[in-house]
Write the structure tokens for this entry.
Amino acid sequence: MNETQTLARFVADSRWGDIPPVMRHEAKRALLNWMGCAIGGCRDDTVERALAALNEFSGARTSSLIGRHEKMDALHAALINGISSNILDYDDTHLRTVMHPTVPVAAALCALAEHRPVTGAQFIQAFVLGIEVACRVGNAVSPWHYAHGWHISSTCGVFGAAAGAAKLLKLNTQQTAWAFGLAATQASGVREMMGGMGKSYNLGHAARGGLLAAVLAERQFTSSERVLEAPRGFAHVLGHEPQLDELTRGLGETWELAANAYKPYPCGIVLHAAIDACLQLRSEARLDANEIASVAVRMNPLALEITGRTEPASGLESKLSVAHVVAVSILHGLAGVAQFTDACVGEPAVVSLRGKVSTQPDASCDTAAAHVEITLTDGRRLSRHVPHATGSLEKPMTDADIEKKFHELAASSRSECHAWDVIEIAWSLDRLNNAAKFVQAAVPETYSG
Amino acid sequence: MNETQTLARFVADSRWGDIPPVMRHEAKRALLNWMGCAIGGCRDDTVERALAALNEFSGARTSSLIGRHEKMDALHAALINGISSNILDYDDTHLRTVMHPTVPVAAALCALAEHRPVTGAQFIQAFVLGIEVACRVGNAVSPWHYAHGWHISSTCGVFGAAAGAAKLLKLNTQQTAWAFGLAATQASGVREMMGGMGKSYNLGHAARGGLLAAVLAERQFTSSERVLEAPRGFAHVLGHEPQLDELTRGLGETWELAANAYKPYPCGIVLHAAIDACLQLRSEARLDANEIASVAVRMNPLALEITGRTEPASGLESKLSVAHVVAVSILHGLAGVAQFTDACVGEPAVVSLRGKVSTQPDASCDTAAAHVEITLTDGRRLSRHVPHATGSLEKPMTDADIEKKFHELAASSRSECHAWDVIEIAWSLDRLNNAAKFVQAAVPETYSG
């Protein structure tokens, strides 16, 4: 049996009992983290403009737009929620591939769950399988694929959305393979979109495309049954010397969701250790910004290369500025959504403190580590070394951390959803009779579901 | 100014007077040819299954499905009509790139013309510009792109659909560049889909994606403004050592639509010369199949490599069988849609005559040429050399040929449209106040439009 068929059969034959309890719980963490990101991004211009363009094309409005009053058909809801949840760059990361796997899978499954009722357990199972497929496809073509210019969260995410939707639609092995074929032939997204609205579009596009692939396959719309490994198929056309064994090795024994990380701060992941260090020093020393003479940061040279910007011109640019994250962490005691806005970038106190930050490349530092030394005006020095940032696999976000992040995101947007309701439903998702309640809790008015 | 901007400005600034009369006429030929293909394919299982899956997702049903009673929203209509018109492999070919350029462009524009009224002249202008952009993008990445495994009609067709739709929506240069960016990041389609429903899906996907890109850009959904030439943009990610000057050289002076060819027979283009030869011999010699002892065909070795199949198992396979096309041309005096069905492949007389056909590679033969020699049972020999097949650029289909082909296709489907009405409207398209009349003539009931 070839790789595509093996992966399709794995999805089609999977039973609830095959998903280890620890992965079921990890799924809830990923989904709660994702839902917060979607709520946080739901009022962004990117979403407003996509809605303005697409609203008239919506079919039967079965599916919620997270954080908003509107509904759209399931395909459009997958697209819009995929866009919303990637906007803040706050979603999860499969560190090996730098993919954001939850966005396309969860956006497709939430939209579908309101279109065709499923239980919470079915939802979690489909989600875990979708993540598994997306990440395995990513592993097979990494690292060449992303380095070459492909936006891997989209090009490989579409397979995850297809796999998850195929499972919820109860497709058989052949249909699931067709869904992979139809996902592959929609796999797109170039990195030139980064920094603009096209970036988040790519993620929504993958969510919609994967759902569409499964919906077509359900109606016997045929496709290749070997699209992953075929000479003119995905891995050879969008990859270079792909590792096809990554698609199936240890299938059902190891789980890619276990290697998924959640961000504590909505900025470049290599900056997280420096933020941790500053927040710890601030908390312990009750720092007064007026007493700070200078801040010296030692980080990995590569990490500094992309984050060395000292004078960010916008909220977007500040997400890759070590000087900025140091300044806001010390001044605000926070590095949340509000700290990466244009307004915060221009705050006089932030501008002033940014000017006191110097950086020093240190090849002995890991890319996920940082050393921060603060010199006070009276000559005292405070220093902190953080080898593993919060949110790394070595020091993962706790369930409480994820809840706190969710509250921050819910408060930051005008979504008016009841944060505690969403959190409670997320943790009990495997016991829900109707998974749609999860997404319906995250809109301003709760529907009866 | 970079290539993307130059091409976007060319589209945005183009005036009706910039389109040479000969290209306006060529547009009508391409559109009539395309409409026939769409009618011919409109009842195929591929369309029926796509409709079964997608009908419930349709928004406001503004746009006709060619040859059928149903309407769908403009995005879905672009998808379905794109699928229909590619199914028979009878659509046009931009020979340099082997792209089928009209399908994505015309499918997007017809759907849009019913959504937002435009004149026939605006329609023709947008069509010519769309073809120009699709083919120039194709030229820039050919021949590597297709050889590597990309389904070029989809990956480059999406730019044509975006360009044409951008023109009809009157987008400015910046918006048109964004539409190219959003088209690029949707550019997909692998050749592994060939031979299944995914092949025609790819073309419909490009039509829909290009239209969507323009609709988003109209609402200020931003994107890169240099997606064609950027290091992580289209030409470098989906191409290898691209010829970027092909994007803009001679823009407005030469027209790619002039290099577009129409197929007289719905089968592999390298077989057309052999069909011409057999039809001519049959017509001149009043051949009786019972008197034929053998048929010897000399063709280019490469052409024979892909068409040497002597015992095709299906209508689909017969499209690449030299023995089959020789047999049906001599027996039926035709090589139309009816000659490439499963039923025709199994006809005893066809099977018998196929068995008498032998092939001989001849490196001195052009890929578009053929030499046929028929030996009769009484020892007489009849031979014909065809250097340029009907439908080649050297011997193009006449307007009358295209009309005849349209009649054949209209009769082959159960579309019940009035063929003469469509033909008359096609030839007068530049004088119509409402271009929608063209597509509305090609549905069973004529709407007032």
